[in-house]
Amino acid sequence: MGNQQEAIGHILLPTNGAIAQPNLFVNDCVLVRQINKHREFWAPGIVKVLPSTVSQPPPLYSVQIYTPSPHRV
Q1: Residue 70 and residue 73: Cα distance in Å, rounded?
Q2: Is residue 29 in some structural domain?
Q3: Does pLDDT of 32 surpass 60?
Q4: By the 8 A CB rule, do 58 and 15 touch?
Q5: Is cis: bond before 58, omega within 30 of 0?
Q6: Are 63 and 47 in contact (CB under 8 A)?
Q7: How many Å is the maximal CA-CA distance in the chain?
Q8: E-only strand ranges, the chain
Q9: Cα–Cα dist 18/53, whole Å
Q10: Which residues, listed in sequence order, are joined to residue 40 by a DSSP beta bridge?
Q11: Residue 30 falls inside a structural domain
């Protein structure tokens, strides 16, 4: 897939190269591809931070991924 970066709690979406360049906005709903123990699945997420307009390529979006497991608050 090109650019990969390990992130905990969020996924960074590259938007250049041979992949599509989506026009995303804050609070857009997206699907995030994840692999867990040789099993691929798609999790829902929400765009939280847009790429900086002055950053060097590749611009990256910050996405919060929904996790259905209960958490103690």
Answers
A1: 9
A2: yes
A3: yes
A4: yes
A5: yes
A6: yes
A7: 41
A8: 10-14, 29-36, 39-49, 60-65
A9: 21
A10: 35
A11: yes
